[in-house]
Fold Putative glycosyl hydrolase-like family 6 (GHL6) protein.
Amino acid sequence: MNISSHLPFRQVHLDFHTSEAIPGIGSAFRPDEWAQTLREAHVNSVTCFSCCHHGWSYHPTRVGAMHPHLGFNLLRAQIDAAHACGIRVPVYLTAGNNQRLAMEHPEWREITPDGRYMGWAPTPLSAGFSKLCLNSGYLEVLRALCEETVELFPDADGIFLDIICQGQCCCPGCVTDMLREGFDPESEADRIRFARRTLLNYYRVITAACRKFNPDMPVFHNSGHIPRGDREILPYFSHLELESLPTGGWGYDHFPVSAAYCRKLPFEFIGMTHTCPNKLLKG
């Protein structure tokens, strides 16, 4: 399949964060209908999921856990059907979130300086995803997931990693490492510096994992925005994707400002829109 190297004009980010409580995942998937729907929408790139925020993989995996209600290799079927008609498929992996692992390994969760678990759920009984610490044993699992994904899907048209951030974590591992490396955990300035050290280590380790078998594999690390002024992280990117949902918290002024900044960077960039899974993917 010969697909040109420049970025696509019409790309869709197919959000597919699917709870284990949902049955029949992919049971109505029809490759021909899938491809025809994309063609009719004039889509030339669609980001599909390897591992979602719930922690489930959409293909057989040795490292992670396949969605309990998925009975076949959905990601492989999506890639094959799309590639057959010249449509790219970058592959998505969650990074900052993985609810399955957060429940199995609470010691890997990010802890705020005031002792709370970081995340998007205000209480333990509230719905929401938990934030994982990138200075914990989780980073090794994420590295292995990325390496497995690019090994299983060498024809992927890129790797998209999501929720790339690190707060002033005070989990036992971070406090121990801060003390050993000469940081003061009681100093906010030192906690911020240590979080930055952790984040840069993430970029090094995970970008290398994504390019283990193909040094030219496109990689994008998403944090919901392009951090303006932060050029230290740019060597770990192959291109930029501007996530900007006007009614999703970004606002209508976000995209033009972000695009104006990115025009001055040495990268191609595209706008990133979202769509929900359609009837072709749901049972």
Residues 278-283 have pLDDT under 50 and may be disordered. The two ends are 30 Å apart (CA to CA). The longest strand covers residues 45-51.
